[in-house]
Every structure is written in C-alpha cells, then in structure tokens.
Amino acid sequence: MDIVPTYCVVPRISVNFSLPNKERKRERAPRQLVAICSLFFFISGVRFEDEPMDLEFHQLDFRYEKLRVIRPEQERRLLTSLAEVGQQVPIVVVQDQGKSLFVVIDGYKRVRSLRRLARDTVMASWWPGEESEALIVTRLMQAAEPESALEQSWLLSELQDRFGLSLEELARRFGHSVSWVSRRLALVRQLPDSIQEQVRRGEIVP
Question: Is the pTM of this model over 0.70?
C-alpha cells in the first residue's frame, strides 16, 4: 500500500486526515497518529498494539532524536500539560532487532518532558512493522506542526544512509520529485554541522 502525505487510500477506504484548524491539529495530532497507525496495520493485516506498555527510560533507544528541532515554547506547554494531567498519549516505538531496546520513533518531546518531571516510566505503543516504514508513516501523518526543510533533510539523509533507500524510492514514498529529494539532501550535506546543531537545539529558528 502506498502512503501519501494527506490521505491513506486503500480499496473501498479513503480517510481524510486533515483537521479544521491549527488549534485542533495541535490538540489531536498525537492521538490521531496512534489511531492512524492502528488503521494502517488493520488494513495491512498486521496488529498494531492497542494496549500501551510502560517502559523505563533505560529501555529506550533515542537514535532519531537528532532528526527534529527542539522548540522551547512547545516544550514548555507540553511540560505544563504533563505536570497537570499526566501522559495521555503514548509514544511510538519499534523493537530493535537483536537487542532488548525499543527505538523511539515518535514522542521525543514527551520523553524529554517526562524526564524533567522525574517520572520513572513512559507510556508507549509498539509498532510491529519495519523501522524505516515507521519513520516514514509517522512523519507523513504529523500535520500538527509544520516541519522545516532541514528536518526533512535530516530524515531523508537518515533513510538513505541507514536503510539504503534510493532517490527514486524516497521521492515516491514522500510524494515529491527526485529533484526535491536531491535538494534536501544537498542542504544537509552543505550546511556546516555547527549551524545544524544550533538549529537542532532551537538556538537558531529554521
């Protein structure tokens, strides 16, 4: 099944994932993402774990934290929410092959905030599919906060370097041209690492 940025289309099923306004998108996006993942695996015949599990932080692998920019204002709002009502939406993880760790795919802001609140565990939903698929699908379905060109570049570079996806495959999966993919990859390779790190930490607005 092909995954496209705004719609998940399969025979006799077409689900529009757009939301009426930015505020609702911000509030519903994490829950919506978990629901979308469940629908994706229901259609594919693979069971997405509906019952979240509690994981300790030492059980988590944070290899993809570097793919997203830290946005201090959003983190402050999330910290306040978690302090008041606790974690309502699980993070998304995949099982690391050959290890007892769970790789965090989505939910890095929640993890950072829970750590700041000195919590012992994080609620997580396990994605039973491939790691590369999880990265692509979760990113395509996140409509709540627009991503920067640099964040797109980091993800494309990671998918190419770690999983060996070609320019053509990346273009097809993300619904863009090969030229678009090439420009994003050129950005991450030409921009100095020091500047990228400042953007990643939220010190420079992308």
Answer: yes
Q: For 150-183, what is each residue's pLDDT tens digit?
A: 999 999 999 999 999 999 999 999 999 999 999 9
The one-letter amino acid code at 79 reads: L
Residue 25 pLDDT greater than 60, yes or no: no
What's the angle, vertex CA 111, arms to CA 164 and CA 37, rounded to 5? 55
DSSP 8-state symbol, 186 = H
- The more confidently predicted of residues 197 and 28 is 197
Q: In angstroms, rounded to a whole number, what is the distance separating the alpha carbons of residues 150 and 185?
A: 9
pLDDT tens sequence across 30-87: 555 555 555 554 444 445 555 899 999 999 999 999 999 999 999 999 999 999 999 9
Residue closest to 81 by CA, chosen among 71, 70, 73? 73
Q: Tell me the C-alpha distance between 110 and 72, whole Å.
A: 13
SS3 for the chain is: CCCCCCEEEECCEEEECCCCCHHHHHHHHHHHHHHHHHHHHHHHCCCCCCCCEEEEHHHEECCCHHHCCCCHHHHHHHHHHHHHHCCCCCEEEEECCCCCCEEEEECHHHHHHHHHCCCCEEEEEECCCCHHHHHHHHHHCCCCCCCCHHHHHHHHHHHHHHHCCCHHHHHHHHCCCHHHHHHHHHHHHHCCHHHHHHHHCCCCCC
What is the token pair recorded at 55? 């994981």
